[in-house]
Amino acid sequence: MADTSHTAVLGAGTIGASWTALFLASGRWVTVFDPDPGAEDVVRAYVDQAWETMSQLGLTERGNPDRLTFASSAAAAVEGAGFVQENVPERLPIKHATFAEIEPALAADAIVASSASGLTLGQMQGGWSNPGQFILGHPFNPPHLIPLVEVMGNDRTNPGVVPRAEAFYKDIGKVTIRVNKEVPGHVANRLQAAVWREAIHLVLSGVASVGDVDKAMSAGPGLRWAVMGPTTLFSLGAGAGGLPAFCDHFTDTFNGWWDDLGTPRLTPEVSATLAAGLAEATAEASVADLAAERDRKIVRLQQALNGPTDPPSSEEG
Ligand SMILES: NC(=O)c1ccc[n+]([C@@H]2O[C@H](COP(=O)([O-])OP(=O)(O)OC[C@H]3O[C@@H](n4cnc5c(N)ncnc54)[C@H](O)[C@@H]3O)[C@@H](O)[C@H]2O)c1
Hints:
By secondary structure, the protein is α/β, with parallel strands linked by helices. It folds into two domains: about 5-180, Rossmann fold, CATH 3.40.50; about 190-305, N-(1-d-carboxylethyl)-l-norvaline Dehydrogenase, domain 2, CATH 1.10.1040.10. It is built from 13 helices and eight strands. It has helices spanning about 15-25, 40-55, 75-80, 90-100, 120-125, 160-170, 190-205, 210-220, 220-225, 230-235, 240-260, 270-280, 285-305, and strands at about 5-10, 30-35, 70, 85, 110-115, 135-140, 150, 175-180. Strands 3-2-1-4-5-6-7-8 form an eight-stranded mixed sheet. The longest helix has 20 residues, at about 285-305. The model is unreliable at about 315 (pLDDT under 50). Bound molecules: nicotinamide-adenine-dinucleotide. The site of nicotinamide-adenine-dinucleotide has 26 residues, from helix 1, helix 4 and strand 6.
């Protein structure tokens, strides 16, 4: 069995640098390949900066940031690695060229996971002579902070590869879901797209401002959705009767709302309307400030979610 204490990261931009930090935090050796001559400095700085955040999340107990090396080619990077995370640009010819280059250099049972957001597993399998060890392992940005990974294999994937990949991801602190069928955007991006479509529709129809639509999500359903998914939550919405009672009670309500949802398109005019609304809502805060606020709050939320669930009762002791 290939040694997953040795990993490789191919392409170390936004996503690859973050995976690198997380793999190091889990105690893995990481060999990175990125053709950009400035990549090594950027990745090392990124790991330094991410380490503190990962420590706050309890992810670095086994970690060692010094187990990081850089290779001069993708083939050299994957040598001896048991798990390879591919994060090269989202263009099929680049993905295919990378797979063709690494395939002869891989250990026999090494797993290669692609972070691809838009390309499908089937499209990417075209770059392999034998794609048996190749899967989709789609993260959320930044992977060292957001737990979800969407994992997918198909009938061309060797038996046992998907469960082994899931075990690897679990060991480094990720939460995985399995995608059973090829669709554009996998699962979570489709959910985000569905919600954002209606958010835009509400703004364009004058129902509420950009700031208030965003607030409606983050102060309302968004907070609950960090704890449980929508079907579980709705099963709690009609008392002891659970989900069947909820569906029975709200059949006409939901069918009516669904019939009324909007179908806006992203155009330059829509983009300008949203940007103006956002500038007003955020008092023109900079992207860097908003990103820092987001990351700070996500860390606190995760600490709360993963901390002790049963505080000692005041009657104890
Ligand atoms: N950015 C996101 O929010 C996000 C989220 C999930 C998944 N993804 C996926 O991750 C992958 C990478 O996206 P990104 O946002 O990190 O892109 P990016 O442009 O930030 O990084 C790509 C990196 O690949 C390097 N590169 C270029 N050619 C290469 C090659 N032949 N071999 C190795 N490295 C090469 C570039 O120098 C760059 O550092 C894409 O498939 C994307 O769909 C992105």
